[in-house]
Amino acid sequence: MTETLTLTQAPEQLLDRWQHASRPTDHAGWLARALEVADILAADALERDRANQAPVNEVQLLKNAGLVTVLGPIAHGGAELPWHVVNKIVRIISRADGSIGQLLGYHYLWAWAVRLVGTEAQIAAVEELYTSNNFFFGGAVNPRDSDLKITEEAGQLVYNGHKSFSTGGRVADLTVLEGVLDGTETHIFAIVPTQQPGIVFAGDWDNLGQRLTESGSVEIKDVRVDWSGAAGFVDREFQPLVYNTLNVPGLQAVFNNIYLGIAEGALASAAAYTREYTRAWPFGGEDKQHGTEEFYVLEGYGQLASKLWADAALIDQIDLEISEVLHAPREELTERRRGEVAVRVAAGKLRIIEDGLEIANKIFELTGARASANRVGLDIYWRNLRTHSLHDPLPYKKHEVGKFVLVNEIPTPTWYS
């Protein structure tokens, strides 16, 4: 039997896998490429999770496979994939490794951030920069912390402050910052190089799950940005559009696919274990020989699979809806349409979190006591899903959906809705 190479044991061989391969030319080809990457990540996901090291090789794998630039312009080496395909890539990667799925999903949203709030000139410049250089995005934009303080010195914006959470951290080439101009209520986004003295990551993310997401704290010290880099500002005045507020529904749609991917990975891993190892209960009668003959096991997998398939169908439809909005002319988006999309994304989120957590828990009943061994590692799916699904309270998503259904009221745009 040929030994499976892993990213831990043989990173050079795996990172060079696509060195002489042609790039995919259609949606199916890119999804197939994502499946190749997922197979590599799945081989040692548990080992890398336990090591809890900065995912340098993992991000390089995404880069070498071409997945980092799929939203970027074809003219600069991108693929210009639509968001509904990009979210499927996030889902595929999350099946294998929820942490890396989160990193990639956040990267896509931050790469799109310049389209959400930037001027046409800024969009062109940033998309050329990150696509042609194969750069990876992170973000230090945690709304629950105090905003970064921005002062103006010699015609430049100077960012200072602390964020208790970020994403991408030390493995990001570019970092998105957000702060408030001192003495005003003006929020300003900017994209800056990560590797500079004024951005100091603590490397202190050591949580239950999503352990490789570089989500720890960061200090921002005198990071300078020219006014030309203030996203969406013309002559120091912001040019608002409803489209600017799609950052939250866009990111939450990414969440849906992270969660769905983790749940799909959990069910597939459990089923593989059951087929190989789960034993029939010897006192149940009918002289069953294997766990796959147990009625309660068959019933359990049937229930979980039907919920997961329903969630996937719902999320697929939602992704088509938000993809259409994200790729439409920015000036056309109305507050009503934005709100309808946000409600749909919230509905998908509440379903996949509840069903996904049920799956990640229930699989232990269906695989048996021996499947709780640390070497099996089925706990990684529950840990990852439970950790990230605490990002914002699910009851508020239910409230948004209920208010829309009962009184036809759309959510007011906030940092979380």
Automatic annotation (TrEMBL):
Gene Ontology molecular function? 3-methylbutanoyl-CoA dehydrogenase activity; flavin adenine dinucleotide binding; monooxygenase activity
Q: State the Gene Ontology BP annotations.
A: L-leucine catabolic process
List each copy of the Acyl-CoA dehydrogenase/oxidase N-terminal domain by range. Answer: 41-123
Question: Keywords on this record?
Answer: Flavoprotein, Monooxygenase, Oxidoreductase
Taking the record's annotation, the residue ranges forming a coiled coil are none
Q: Which domain of life is it from?
A: Bacteria
Specify the Acyl-CoA dehydrogenase C-terminal domain's residue ranges: 258-391
Ligase among the record's keywords? no
- Does the keyword Repeat feature in the UniProt annotation? no
Q: Name one Pfam family in it.
A: Acyl-CoA_dh_2
Protein name, UniProt field: Monooxygenase
